[in-house]
Design brief:
Elements (H helix, E strand, L loop, with lengths): L11 H11 L8 H14 L3 E5 L2 H11 L7 E5 L4 H8 L4 E5 L21 E4 L11 H10 L3 E5 L7 E2 L2 E2 L6 E5 L12 E5 L5 H8 L5 H5 L19 H11 L2 H24 L12 E2 L5 E4 L3 H13 L15 H6 L1 E2 L6 H5 L2 E4 L7 H15 L1
Parallel strand pairs: 2-3, 2-4, 3-12, 4-5, 5-8
Antiparallel strand pairs: 1-9, 6-7, 6-10, 8-9, 11-13
Helix pairs in contact: 1-8, 2-8, 3-4, 3-6, 9-13
């Protein structure tokens, strides 16, 4: 069976993890956490980066830093993972879902302004498949309405919009290093903070509400409880696993892009014949080949195609069930405007296997199976 995903692994990781054990420093904020943080700050030019236990927790931190109050509203797409909404719901905020663009599956920036009310506090764009939302428009809307922007860049490490790293254009950004992502620490994430002045408050919340980070830097002679918070620190062994990949990040990125481009070339004839649709990447966006998806005619055809690929020992999967149609989405939030594309496009989308180490001949075999279905 050709697996849908294989977690990325670089051979040097085992030695780095052993080093953590030998140094008897396996908890959070050790040497490899510092190495990962430095790499991410230099690569993205973010004001401050904090490694977290997950992208969910990075978004939780962002929601806390936004100082949301019960009843405040957050505008976001319904086509996203539950964490995008959950982090704000936990603060008592109301998720207001708007429709997506059918070309990129990202939030339709033209519909955001109409969804703004006197209770709106945050816009939370999600960069689907590592392809950026139309950030210039979103940032302009946020500035004119005095709103914060929290970028869900879970899938966006190494992607850019007009030369700027995803996650760095809004007030806060969140990366994921889950095992399904381009770079992984098993479970993990990172919070990107645009304004370095917010870093101290973020550090305190991340460190159980204490100023222990300042203590470790020698800025205070003892640390104490100074604010609310929780523990968002990943083990340094997880960071060691991740750092091995970051050292060869370009190699991993290039290999994934090669697989993505091979899929695109192989399946272009089917798209030209009107059988399927292929992903769209706007000219101002540089993507990271996080996933390769195609769109079938409808959910019936997609289900049949998944079955056909499974019979050929190829695992292909669909993606999110729109949040506004879920029980929690109906309870906690609302959809503004008309659902023209969110449900329809989500029911057509099918993700093909994509991972670091995917062999060219494997891509060809998958494409041949897709072609056979449509033949």
């Amino acid at each position: 069976m050709i697996r849908f995903n294989v977690p990325p692994y670089v051979e040097t990781a085992a030695g780095y993890i052993q080093e953590c054990i030998r140094n008897e420093k396996i908890c959070g904020d050790g040497a490899y956490t510092a190495k990962c943080t430095k790499w991410l700050e230099e690569k993205t030019s973010a004001g401050k980066v904090l490694l977290t236990t997950s992208c969910t927790h990075a978004t939780d931190l962002a929601a806390l830093l936004c100082d949301l109050k019960p009843g405040d509203e957050v505008i976001l797409p319904s086509f996203t993972f539950v964490s995008t909404a959950n982090s704000f719901v936990l603060r008592g905020a109301v998720p207001v879902f708007v429709d997506i663009r059918p070309d990129t599956m990202n939030i339709d920036e033209k519909l955001i302004e109409a969804a703004i009310t006197e209770k709106t506090r945050v816009i939370a764009p999600v960069h689907y498949a590592g392809v950026s939302c139309e950030m210039d428009t979103i940032l302009d809307i946020a500035k004119r309405h005095n709103l914060l922007v929290v970028e869900d860049a879970a899938q966006g490490v190494m992607s850019t919009y007009k030369g700027k790293a995803l996650g760095t254009m809004g007030d806060f950004g969140a990366f994921s290093f889950h095992e399904t992502k381009n770079y992984s620490m098993g479970e993990g994430g990172a919070l990107l903070i645009k304004d370095p002045a917010m870093a101290e408050e973020a550090e305190i919340i991340r460190e159980k509400g204490t100023d222990r980070s300042k203590f470790y830097r020698g800025q205070v002679d003892k640390y104490t409880w100074v604010n609310y918070g929780s523990s968002y620190l990943p083990s340094d062994m997880n960071a060691a696993y991740l750092y091995a990949q970051l050292e060869v990040a370009d190699r991993i990125n290039d290999q994934r892009l090669s697989s993505w481009n091979r899929y695109y070339r192989n399946l272009q004839p089917l798209a030209d014949a009107g059988k399927i649709e292929l992903p769209h990447v706007p000219a101002e966006c540089v993507h990271n080949a996080h996933m390769f998806y195609i769109k079938a005619k409808d959910i019936t055809e997609r289900t049949a195609l998944i079955g056909h690929l499974k019979e050929n020992e190829i695992m292909a999967v669909f993606h999110y069930i729109p949040l506004h149609s879920s029980p929690a989405g109906k309870h906690f939030g609302r959809f503004h405007g008309e659902d023209v594309y969110t449900t329809k496009e989500s029911e057509r989308l099918l993700r093909l296997p994509m991972y670091y180490g995917l062999e060219p001949e494997t891509v060809d075999r998958i494409c041949d199976a897709v072609k056979a279905f449509y033949a």
